[in-house]
Design a protein that fits this description.
The complex is a heterodimer of chains A (338) and B (262).
Chain A (H helix, E strand, L loop, with lengths): L14 E4 L2 E2 L2 E2 L2 H16 L3 E7 L6 H6 L4 E6 L8 H15 L3 E5 L2 H13 L4 E5 L1 E4 L6 E7 L4 E6 L6 E5 L16 E5 L11 E7 L12 E5 L6 H14 L2 E4 L1 H5 L20 E5 L5 H4 L7 E6 L5 H5 L2 E4 L2 H14 L1
Parallel strand pairs in A: 1-4, 1-6, 4-5, 5-12, 6-11, 7-11, 14-15, 14-16, 16-17, 17-18
Antiparallel strand pairs in A: 2-3, 8-9, 9-10
Helix pairs in contact in A: 3-4, 5-9
Chain B lengths: L1 E5 L2 E3 L20 E3 L1 H17 L2 E7 L5 H9 L4 E5 L9 H15 L4 E5 L10 H9 L2 E12 L3 E7 L3 E8 L2 E5 L11 H9 L4 E2 L19 E6 L9 E3 L3 H14 L4
Helix pairs in contact in B: 2-5, 3-4
Classes of the chains: A alpha/beta (338), B alpha/beta (262).
The complex binds flavin-adenine dinucleotide and adenosine monophosphate.
C-alpha cells in the first residue's frame, strides 16, 4: 500500500514470517525466518507473527512459538493443501490489509519466489529477493535489505520507504534460527480462507517427491560438486560415495550436465542454482565465472584439481593438487580410519 | 494459441557498472545478450504454436538495442516482436516492470499464455513472471520443467518444488515461468535469420499501452537501491596441498578437523 505521508508508517507494526510448508510439514527455513524476524521486531519493539497457511497443519503452531513467534496467524483450509499461489497470495493480501504488518519475510525457495512477488503486486508494495542481510534503519525505521546481484559480484542495499508492508525473501541457511524453547507459548489467531480470495486457481493433479528432479542444494551444509574433470557418470558414483560419507549433497558444473553425466537439478551457477554452503568441495571444476557466481559466497571452499592454476584453485581456501580419482578414495579411506 | 514471451536483454558479463546517482545498472555501452533462461521460454512457445497454430509475440522492455534480442527470438521462430522503450520506463524495479509488461500484454489483446524465463541473470529475482500474473490477475505456474499436455484452452505442466514436482493444470489465460530442462532451444535457420533482419519492430511508449506514469520507471518503483558495494573480500590465503594423495589427504583431514568441519 502506498503511503501518502511518512507518519502512516506507524500504523504498520509487526514482523511477519511466512512459514514454508512442504507436504504438510513446516520446513526448517521457517525457523530461520522467525529468528531473523525476532531481531527486527526486537529492534522496533514489536511482535513476531508466524503466518501458517496450510491444510491440517494447525498442530505445528507450537514449534513456531518455540522458535520465537509471539503469535501464529493460522489459515487451515483443504484448498491450501497443495501449493496454490493464487489462494495463498489472495488470503495473504487480505490479511495484510487487515492487520497491517510492517514487514513480511518469506523463504527464497521455489515456493516463496513464486508466491511473494504475486503478493507484492496485489498489495502494491516492494519486494526484495534473496536477501542475505536485514537491518532496521535507526533514523526512520525502514527495513534495510541487502542482497547479492550480478551473481554475487555486487551487494545492493535496498529500501522501500514509500510503501508498506516491506516484503523480502531470504535465502535458506543464511539467517540463524534461535534455540527452541518448548516452554514458550503464544496466541493463535485463526482466519478463514474466503471464496473471494482467488478468482481462478490451478488444479494440482498430483505431487511427486523426486530426489533426481530436485536437489535441495540450497539447504545443504556441505556440497561435493563435480565438473568435466569427473569424466563421466562413473566418476559421479565416486562423488556420491564421497558425499554420503560426509553427509553432503552433490552438485555439478554445467559442463558435466551438458555431457549428460548428471541431471540439471544438480547444476550450480548462473543458469543453475546459487548456493551458500558451509563447505563447497569442487572436484575437477575449473571455476569459470558462470560457475563461481553460484557458489563463491560459501564459507569454506575446497578444490581438487590436477591443474593448480585454475580460477577455482586460486579462490579455494584449500587447494589439493592431484588426480581426483586418487584423492577422493584416499579421503574416504582416511575418514573411515576414525 | 496466442502466446507472448517476455524476454530480457542482459549484460554479457558479470562485471556490472553502477550509476552512482540512481544506483542502478548502467546498461549503455555494455555488451548484451539474450537472458539464457528466456531462450527456453521462446522455444516452448514456438513448439506450442507449431502444434496448435496461432502466434508467438516476443515482448521486451529495455533500451533500443534490446531489439537485437527480439530479432534473435524471431530468427528461431517467433512471429513478431514488440519493444517497450522510453526514458520513462528507465529505473523500473520488478513491480514497475511487471506492470508495464502486463499493460503491453493487455494491449496486444486476446493473449492465451505468457511465458517468461525463470529469472534474469542480472537481477536474479524471478519476480517479473509472477508479477505479470498478479497484475493481470491470471493463474500462474512457476519453475515449469515440463509441459505434459496442452489444448486450445489450457495446459498441463510439471512445476518444480523444493522436494519434487507437482503436476498442475491451468486454464488460459495463464503465465508460466520455465526452467532450463524444459526443452532444447533450436538454432536459427537461414530463413529465420533473414526474417529477423527484415522485421520491423514497433516501439511502444507508455501512452501506447495506457500505462499510468506514476506506476512506471523509478517513480513507479516501490524499492530503491540505496547503496551498492563489492562483497567483502574472501579470505583468499589459499592453502595449497601438493604432495602424494595420501599426504595431501592427511593434511586436509587434519585441517578440516581444526576448522571444526569434520
Ligand atoms: C550463458 C552461460 C551460462 C552458464 N551457466 C553456467 C552455470 O550455471 N554453471 C556452470 O557451471 N557453468 C555455466 N556456464 C559454463 C561455464 O562457462 C563453463 O563452461 C563451465 O562451468 C565449465 O565446467 P567445468 O569447470 O566442469 O569444466 P572445465 O572448464 O573443462 O574444467 C575441468 C577441470 O577439471 C580438471 N581435471 C580434469 N581431469 C581431472 C582429474 N582426473 N582430476 C582432477 N582434476 C581434473 C581440469 O584441470 C579442469 O580444471 C555457462 C556458460 C554460459 C555461456
Ligand atoms: N525488461 C524486461 N522485458 C521483458 N521481459 C522481462 C524483463 N525483465 C524480466 N523479464 C522476464 O521476466 C523473467 C524474470 O526476470 P527477473 O524477475 O528480472 O529475474 C525473465 O526471464 C523474462 O522472461
Amino acid at each position: 500500500m502506498i503511503l501518502t505521508d511518512p507518519s502512516q508508517k506507524a500504523e504498520y507494526r509487526n514482523v511477519w514470517a511466512l512459514a514454508e510448508v512442504l507436504s504438510g510439514q513446516v520446513q526448517p527455513v521457517t525457523y530461520e525466518l522467525i529468528g531473523a524476524s525476532r531481531a527486527l521486531a526486537d529492534a522496533k519493539g514489536s511482535e513476531v507473527w508466524a503466518v501458517l497457511l496450510g491444510a491440517g497443519t494447525a498442530g505445528q503452531a507450537d514449534s513456531l512459538f518455540a522458535y520465537g513467534a509471539d503469535k501464529v496467524l493460522l489459515v487451515d483450509d483443504p484448498r491450501l493443501a497443495g501449493f496454490s499461489d493464487e489462494w495463498e497470495a489472495g488470503v495473504l493480501e487480505r490479511l495484510m490489509r487487515k492487520y497491517k504488518p510492517d514487514v513480511l519475510l518469506g523463504a527464497a525457495t521455489a515456493r516463496g519466489r513464486a508466491l511473494m512477488p504475486r503478493v507484492a503486486v496485489k498489495a502494491n508494495c516492494g519486494l526484495t529477493a534473496d536477501c542475505t542481510q536485514l537491518g532496521i534503519d535507526p533514523e526512520n525505521g525502514d527495513l534495510l535489505q541487502t542482497r547479492p546481484a550480478f551473481g554475487g559480484n555486487i551487494l545492493a542495499t535496498i529500501r522501500c520507504s514509500s510503501h508498506r508492508p516491506q516484503l523480502a525473501t531470504v535465502r535458506p541457511r543464511v539467517m540463524k534460527a534461535l534455540a527452541p524453547d518448548s516452554g514458550r507459548k503464544g496466541e493463535v489467531i485463526r482466519e478463514e480462507l474466503l471464496d473471494t480470495d482467488a478468482k481462478k486457481t490451478k488444479r494440482i493433479v498430483e505431487t511427486f517427491q523426486d530426489k533426481e528432479t530436485v536437489v535441495n542444494l540450497g539447504h545443504a551444509q556441505i556440497i561435493v560438486s563435480g565438473g568435466r574433470g569427473v569424466k563421466g557418470p562413473k566418476g559421479f558414483d565416486l562423488l556420491r560415495a564421497f558425499a554420503n560419507k560426509v553427509g553432503a549433497a552433490v552438485g555439478a558444473s554445467r559442463a558435466a550436465i551438458d555431457s549428460g553425466w548428471i541431471s540439471y537439478a544438480h547444476q550450480i551457477g548462473q543458469t543453475g542454482q546459487t548456493v551458500q554452503t558451509r563447505v563447497y568441495i569442487a572436484c575437477g571444476i575449473s571455476g569459470q565465472i558462470q560457475h563461481l557466481v553460484g557458489m563463491q559466497s560459501s564459507d569454506t571452499i575446497i578444490a581438487i584439481d590436477k591443474n593448480p592454476n585454475t580460477p577455482m584453485m586460486q579462490l579455494a581456501d584449500i587447494a589439493i593438487v592431484g588426480d581426483l580419482f586418487e584423492v577422493i578414495p584416499e579421503i574416504i579411506k582416511e575418514i573411515d580410519k576414525v | 494459441m496466442k502466446i507472448v514471451v517476455c524476454i530480457k536483454q542482459v549484460p554479457a558479463s558479470s562485471d556490472a557498472k553502477i550509476d552512482p546517482e540512481t544506483k542502478r545498472i548502467i546498461r549503455e555501452g555494455m555488451k548484451a545478450v539474450l537472458n539464457p533462461f528466456d531462450t527456453y521460454a521462446v522455444e516452448e512457445a514456438v513448439q506450442l504454436r507449431n502444434r496448435f497454430g496461432g502466434e508467438v509475440i516476443v515482448l521486451s522492455m529495455g533500451p533500443e538495442k534490446a531489439a537485437h534480442s527480439l530479432r534473435e527470438a524471431i530468427s528461431v521462430g517467433a512471429d513478431r516482436a514488440v519493444l517497450l522503450s522510453d526514458r520513462a520506463f528507465g529505473g523500473s524495479d520488478t513491480w514497475a516492470t511487471s506492470y508495464a509488461l502486463a499493460k503491453a500484454v493487455e494491449k496486444i489483446g486476446g493473449v492465451d499464455l505468457v511465458i517468461c524465463g525463470k529469472q534474469a541473470v542480472d537481477g536474479d529475482t524471478a519476480q517479473v513472471g509472477p508479477g505479470i500474473a498478479a497484475h493481470l490477475d491470471w493463474v500462474q505456474a512457476t519453475y515449469v520443467l515440463k509441459v505434459e499436455d496442452a489444448s486450445e484452452t489450457g495446459i498441463r505442466v510439471r512445476r518444480m518444488n523444493e522436494d519434487g514436482y507437482d503436476v498442475c493444470e491451468v486454464d488460459f489465460p495463464a503465465v508460466l515461468t520455465v526452467l532450463k530442462d524444459i526443452n532444447r532451444p533450436r538454432v536459427p535457420t537461414l530463413k529465420g535469420s533473414l526474417a529477423a533482419l527484415r522485421e520491423e519492430i514497433p516501439v511502444w511508449k507508455p501512452a501506447d499501452i495506457g500505462a499510468e506514469l506514476e506506476k512506471i520507471g523509478l517513480d513507479g518503483s516501490p524499492t530503491r537501491v540505496v547503496k551498492t558495494a563489492p562483497p567483502p573480500p574472501r579470505n583468499t590465503v589459499t592453502r595449497v596441498l601438493e604432495g602424494t594423495p595420501a599426504e595431501s589427504v592427511r593434511e586436509l583431514v587434519k585441517d578440516l578437523r581444526t576448522r571444526g568441519i569434520l
